[in-house]
Design goal:
The complex is a heterodimer of chains A (470) and B (454). Chain A is mainly alpha-helical and 470 residues long. Chain A contains 20 helices and no strands. In chain A, 77% of the residues lie in helices and 0% in strands. In chain A, helix 12 runs antiparallel to helix 13. The longest helix of chain A has 32 residues. The two termini of chain A are 18 Å apart. Chain B is built from 19 helices and two strands. Chain B is mainly α and 454 residues long. Chain B has one domain. Chain B is globular, with a radius of gyration of 21 Å. Chain B starts with a helix and ends with a helix. Classes of the chains: A mainly alpha (470), B mainly alpha (454).
Chain lengths: 470, 454
């Protein structure tokens, strides 16, 4: 929990630096903060595994608000790691000042609350703390109309979904008499045991699910995401696609697998249908786009569909599969968005033609593009395959038909991922990419590439940590 | 060249290989998790495929010298492909097999996309998606089998084979596996990607595809499909045989009408593999042995034919039959090479195509005389289109301006092919001996699991 404090105080510090000192220093401080938070998290992880984590650290006792268990720590690690990648890659070319960095840090604090809540109030706080800076970030290109549009859209839709979510919390409270996950789980277990179906709780679950589905941009609540992803500046889009998505899924996973797992038969099928529809819709819609940024937005909807499968899987398998998948998606999305950002060169034009001639002009960037798109498409020996494999094997026993749909979705996704290759390598026209890439960026690109390949070639790196059940 | 080094390794393995010894040079390490291992081993069947891969890849490399695609990248892709193919043929673990299977797809996608001709992007994408759908179906089947092993504990070949399925499950699992293999082979209704990909890919890509990659599908059929779902074989075998033999006739008839030499060979290849698939599916010792022999010969012959076409095209800038002719008078040496390759592909006695085809026909005939007779027609049809191709391109009035002499790398490549054609035409037993004991084991495996079920 130290890392949460570090990041929260750090965010204030960064804002303060923004007032006084030249803004360049705030970047260094942010990176330093993230690295120290990351090292604390890793330390916590090992302490937790060997049961050395002091009890006050594990549970924020007074009202049973937070729990710092392996799920929380693992997802927080992935969140902080992806923010590090985002900042490392996007800060220099996007003039990220102290204000944006501070907002991102605040948002990440909210994300960490969403991984570690043990009380619905805390989850609500986390969502708000994550979302409010995000509304600002989405509109952070003040002169750009699309950016303003996306901010307003995101804000209205987000506020609406939060209200629905809150309504769900109220219903759950009405039905089970508690807003703590543990007691909810206990009373639901009792209900499930005697076979009584409480309509109040059922309605609550559906409303909670609607709120969460909105946050992860899954069918039928995905309509905001292509517009918002497309309109926001690249740095915000990539932040949404990685950090926000990880936090939302961590919360989704914890809420449904810790508190509501005893009544899985109430919500399992609904969620499975939503996952199937998300996969199909996201992939099919992505094919028809002309803007690559919009394609990525739809592909991120499709990925959300895959990740929903993790929530339906057996909890332990689902946890590891989700972790690997999120890590894979984040590390490859960061690379792809980076290349998209550099090839569009500040212009609001993200068509596939931007990639023309990339293969001739920059061999290394091409390699990165190939590996990360392969990872997104789930080709073996990249992290994406390891994640997909985990999800598929977790789902096959309970929902074989969902597996078939997921595989069909994978096959469809090839069509648009490989369209980039057509422009980048197979077409002879286009001036291509002629910009310098800074040393910091090379380091972070390399880090992301290594993550993709290492997890892909040898997922045991992560899954062998599976000493304790999540 | 790296490829030769691998070749030498295989030669070393071959020298020390004992056909009767079952699985050899096993190497087994936990990989993804305790359930998924990096497990390799070579037995008689893999050995044949390994020899094929590692003899042909250097030939393919040689063929690419002095061309527009003669770049380090091409050689890297080809050698990468060789690695993936070797991985497929030695894999003893279900998921590892799948991974190498997918990996083998990627280099060939880039080869065809980067140096292809015509509407290459659309063609390669269609090729990739078709085969990818098949592979994903296979993945689903493998994961399903895995989930049925005791405690979902192992992906190893033995464990997957030992899984007992109900008839209905076996049907679905078998369908998934079959889809992957049938697309790759390709069997008749699933061959849509093949002719255009063969035609538009550069010579090296076509050789890789036809010479070696198709054999992945046949190998998969033999090694992974039949022992996995013996419960459903009675349902599947007639389908495979029917699809295979229909493909034989259909493709041969199309080949007769083609003008583009590459397309002729593409359809002839479709026709040949149909017969091999049918022969293997019958699951008798003759059929499988003949199938293995023919897989090897077809690989050699297909690479030989595409090599010859490539040489012709390089000198005339065309490979259309109606604008070719009279090359026999211009280059005697090439005419001899090409003739022998054509004869090998037509399965004339004393060339490598003959013994395998004989065994296959015998086995299909044993399955059902009707299919046997239909399949027998292929010998005639094959002679028609092959000799037509040879006649139109080599005889008649010279239409090309000149035919520059063969270069050293072309000599070498053609000689290797020639030696293989003649050697295995005269001594097919050498090849059959390698695989015989393992084929017996495999049949036993299919039978045992099948009987334990019923």
């Amino acid at each position: 929990m130290t890392s949460l404090l570090i990041l929260f105080l750090g965010a204030i510090l960064v804002l303060y630096f923004g007032i006084h000192k030249p803004e360049k220093k705030s970047l260094g401080i942010t990176v330093l903060l993230l690295i120290s938070a990351l090292s604390f998290l890793v330390k916590d992880w090992f302490a937790f595994i060997s049961k050395n984590l002091p009890a006050w650290q594990i549970k924020l006792v007074p009202a049973n608000m937070l729990i710092w268990d392996s799920t929380a720590i693992a997802f927080s690690i992935v969140i902080v790691l992806s923010l590090l990648l985002v900042i490392g890659l996007f800060s220099r070319n996007n003039n990220m000042g102290a204000d944006l960095l501070g907002l991102m840090l605040f948002s990440v604090c909210g994300g960490m609350l969403m991984t570690s809540f043990s009380n619905l109030i805390m989850l609500f706080l986390g969502i708000e703390c994550l979302s409010i800076p995000l509304y600002v970030l989405a509109g952070s290109k003040k002169s750009d109309l699309a950016s303003n549009e996306s901010a307003v859209k995101y804000f209205l839709m987000g506020a609406f979904s939060t209200a629905i979510f809150l309504m769900g919390c109220a219903f759950i409270y009405g039905g089970s008499g508690s807003i703590e996950l543990e007691s909810i789980s206990r009373s639901l277990a009792m209900l499930g045991h005697i076979g009584v179906k409480s309509n109040l709780i059922f309605a609550g679950i559906i409303l909670l699910m609607a709120g969460m589905l909105f946050k992860v941009s899954a069918f039928p609540f995905h309509f905001w995401s292509p517009d918002v992803y497309d309109g926001s500046p690249n740095r915000t889009t990539v932040f949404m696609a990685t950090v926000v998505k990880i936090a939302a899924f961590a919360a989704f996973f914890r809420l449904f697998n810790y508190a509501l797992s005893d009544v899985k038969n109430w919500w399992g099928m609904t969620l499975a249908i939503s996952a199937a529809a998300t996969i199909l819709f996201g992939n099919i819609a992505a094919i028809r786009q002309t803007s690559f940024k919009r394609t990525l937005a739809y592909s991120s909807v499709a990925h959300a569909g895959y990740m929903l499968m993790a929530i339906l899987a057996v909890p332990v398998d689902g946890f590891w599969a989700l972790l690997v998948y999120l890590l894979a998606y984040a590390s490859s999305a960061v690379i792809v968005f980076y290349i998209l950002d550099r090839t569009s060169d500040g212009k609001p034009d993200f068509s596939f033609d931007n990639f023309n001639g990339l293969g001739k002009n920059n061999k290394w960037l091409s390699l990165l593009l190939i590996v990360s798109l392969f990872s997104m498409a789930g080709i073996p020996l990249t992290a994406g395959f390891a994640g997909k494999y985990g999800l598929f094997s977790g789902i096959i026993a309970s929902y074989p038909w969902l597996l078939v749909i997921a595989l069909a979705g994978s096959a469809i996704s090839i069509a648009y991922y490989f369209r980039v290759f057509k422009n980048a390598f197979f077409s002879n026209q286009g001036a291509g990419f002629k910009q310098e890439i800074g040393l910091t960026e090379i380091i972070f690109l390399f880090l992301a590439l290594m993550l993709t390949l290492l997890v892909g070639c040898w997922p045991a790196v992560i899954t062998s940590l599976q000493i304790i059940p999540a | 060249m790296g490829s030769l080094i691998t070749g030498l390794f295989i030669l070393y393995f071959f020298q020390n290989f004992n056909p009767a010894g079952g699985l050899q040079w096993q190497w087994d390490k936990a990989w993804f998790s305790s359930a998924i291992h990096f497990h390799t081993g070579i037995d008689g069947i893999s050995m044949i495929m390994l020899i094929l891969t590692n003899v042909l890849t250097p030939v393919i490399l040689l063929s690419a010298f002095n061309k527009k695609e003669d770049t380090p990248l091409l050689f890297a892709l080809i050698v990468g492909m060789q690695g993936a193919l070797n991985g497929v043929f030695v894999a003893r673990d279900g998921l590892m097999f799948y991974i190498f299977w997918e990996l083998a797809l990627i280099p060939v996608y880039f080869i065809a996309g980067l140096w292809g001709e015509g509407n290459r992007f659309k063609t390669t994408l269609r090729f990739f998606i078709c085969t990818f759908i098949g592979s994903l179906a296979m993945l689903a089947s493998l994961i399903y089998l895995f989930s049925k092993t005791p405690d979902a504990s192992s992906f190893s070949y033995e464990a997957l084979v030992a899984v007992k399925l109900s008839a209905n499950e076996a049907l679905w699992v078998g369908l998934g596996l079959l889809l992957a293999f049938a697309v790759k082979i390709p069997l008749m209704p699933l061959h849509g990607w093949q002719p255009s990909t063969y035609t538009e890919a550069p010579a090296a890509g076509t050789m890789l595809l036809s010479g070696i990659m198709l054999k992945m599908g046949l190998y998969g059929l033999l090694r992974w499909f039949m022992p996995m779902v013996p419960e459903a074989l009675p349902t599947f075998v007639p389908v495979i045989v029917a699809a295979g033999i229909t493909g034989v006739i259909f493709a041969a008839l199309i080949a007769i009408r083609q003008n583009d030499m590459k397309r002729i060979v593409a359809y002839s290849s479709l026709s040949h593999v149909g017969l091999i698939a049918a022969g293997i599916a019958v699951a008798g010792e003759t059929g499988i042995q003949g199938g293995l022999l023919q897989m090897f010969s077809h690989g050699v012959n297909a690479v030989g034919l595409f090599l010859a076409i490539d040489i012709i095209e390089r000198r005339n800038n065309t490979r259309l039959l109606d604008s070719l002719g009279g090359m026999a008078g211009q280059s005697r040496a090439f005419a001899v090479f090409f003739l022998i390759i054509v004869l090998g592909a037509t399965a004339v006695p004393f060339t490598n195509g003959f013994p395998g085809e004989l065994l296959l026909l015998k086995s299909v005939f044993g399955f059902h005389p009707f299919w046997g007779i239909l399949a027998g027609i292929t010998v005639i049809l094959c002679a028609v289109y092959m000799l037509r191709m040879y006649q139109f391109s080599m005889f008649g009035e010279p239409k090309g301006t000149s035919f520059p002499a063969l270069q050293w790398h072309e000599w070498t490549a053609l000689s290797v092919i020639l030696i293989m054609i003649l050697f295995f035409g005269l001594f097919p037993q050498k090849m059959l001996d390698i695989s015989a004991p393992e084929v017996k084991n495999l049949l036993l495996l299919i039978k045992n699991t099948g009987e334990a079920m019923s």
